[in-house]
Amino acid sequence: MFWLASRLLASLAGVALVTYVAYRLVPVNATTVGFGYLLLVLLIASTWGFVESACASVAATFAYNFFFLPPVGTLTIADPQNWIALFSFMTTSLVASRLSDKVKHRALDAIERQQDVERLYTFSRAILLIDTAEPFAKQLIMKVAEIFELNAAVLYERASGEFYRAGPADFEGLDDQLRDAALHGTSFFDTHRSRVIVAIHLGSKPIASLAIQGADMPDSVLQGIGNLIAIGLERAKAEDLARQFEAARQSEQLRTTLIDAMAHELKTPLTSIRAATTSLLSDPDQPVENKMELLKIADEEAERLQNLIENTIEMARLDTTNIDIHPQRSNLADIVRAVVSSMKKEIDTRQVDVISAGEQPAIPADQRLVKLAIKQLLDNALKYSAPGTPVTIRLRTDDGTMTIDVTDRGPGIPYPEQAHVFERFWRSPSVKQQMPGSGLGLSIAHRIARAHNGDLTFTSQPGETTFRLTLPLPPKGEPE
């Protein structure tokens, strides 16, 4: 009311100013001042509205009669034609102000509709960019509150029975109405407190309900928001089902891959154990030296068999759960030598050089996992390089990190395939049929490095491939 009164007074002041200028400062005829009044009325109508312009129109009519139509200084009119002129002026000013006011409101409505469309478009784009870090419904309602500048917003999801709230203000006490809206598709309006509850439908079935506070929205906008939320919830449901399907598919693929890998890897030690025991059973009277040699072979192969089984189980566990590390003070050079020693059968007559640049400091690391990662890198280098070529393992300290470089002299990794090296189950099509493997080793080594806040990278060209395992050194001043 204060602002309306202020605008009415300003409108009257405008009429008074035009009257003073035309009557005292720059005397003009009645026709000219009439156009001046009309221009003022149109200006007020386009700026403020019809009420203010109507007030100015009435005031201008009286001023026009009193100051410019004879007899001047009275509210009477001597010439009947001036009555027509006065009536025409008043009618014209009122009609013009009304039309101007309508044009203004239509322009404002058009701007609001454009803003609503832009907000709906922004919301639709935001739905596509929502990630899976938090519940999808929670992020949806947060986007609604942010984009449409709401004081409070609540989304009730019927399937989960959860309420998701957003906005700076509290919005309590409407849980029953939200449940009823999601169950029966009803709506609730509280115009006094600017509250609205609407049902969200997917087809003809209500799947959720939305409550908003602090904005006066047309039904079309509310329906648009509801439809977009329904689409978003259905998209989230579809993505969740897709993830479950993919997880089940990869779990089945993992099981099949590990079984195939174990079947292949276990044949060699089992064959050696069987050969040793068969020889002992077929000739029990052979020399003690021969018996001891056969028992030693069986024992070594049994130990190798145990390591294969343990590594396979460890790979399956690491590929299906989060890696939980248990760091302890470790010397990487000792770990590398232990891995090389445990892989004598795989190395056979190959040349494996371990080069350590100076004395290596101890670092906090999970020895079991780091051994597994280095074993995968060394096994990979032995598999994919020619039997007569050497493999080099180089350790060094560099800028707060310990690095282990495993270099082979194989054919290299083709550039189009390099982006897939650390993907689960991926194997190069050129060697998939010729070389046994699961496609998990490098992926797991990469995850182990990341779990230690390190990294696993590689460079490759024809004739040389280097995998670099990087682990952080403890900060200076901290115990190792």
**Helical/strand content category:** alpha+beta
Query: Please, what is the CATH homologous superfamily of the largest domain?
Result: Histidine kinase-like ATPase, C-terminal domain
Biggest beta-sheet profile:
5 strands, antiparallel
Domain count, please report it. Answer: 4
| Straight-line N-to-C gap | 74 Å
- Unreliable segments of 5+ consecutive residues: none
Task: Please list the strands of the largest sheet in the order they lie side by side.
Answer: 2-1-5-4-3
Strand percent estimate? 15-25%
The CATH architecture category of the largest domain equals: 2-Layer Sandwich
If you average the pLDDT, what whole number results? Answer: 77
The level-1 CATH class of the largest domain:
Alpha Beta
* Number of helices, where a helix is a run of at least 4 consecutive DSSP H or I residues: 12
CATH fold name of the largest domain: Heat Shock Protein 90
Shape: elongated
SSE order in H/E notation? HHHHHEEHEEEHHEHHEEHEEHEE
Overview of this structure, please?
The protein is an alpha+beta fold and 480 residues long. The chain folds into four domains: 2-109, no CATH class; 131-217; 244-320, Signal transduction histidine kinase, dimerisation/phosphotransfer (DHp) domain (Helix Hairpins, Orthogonal Bundle), CATH 1.10.287.130; 328-472, Histidine kinase-like ATPase, C-terminal domain (Heat Shock Protein 90, 2-Layer Sandwich), CATH 3.30.565.10. The protein has helices at residues 2-25, 30-47, 50-68, 80-129, 136-147, 175-184, 219-282, 288-320, 332-342, 344-347, 367-383, 441-451; strands at 152-157, 162-166, 188-190, 195-202, 205-213, 328-330, 352-356, 363-365, 391-398, 401-408, 455-461, 464-472. The strands form three sheets. It has a five-stranded antiparallel sheet with strand order 2-1-5-4-3, sandwiched between helices. A five-stranded mixed sheet has the order 7-9-10-12-11, covered by helices on one side. The longest helix has 64 residues, at 219-282. The model has no long low-confidence stretch (mean pLDDT 77).
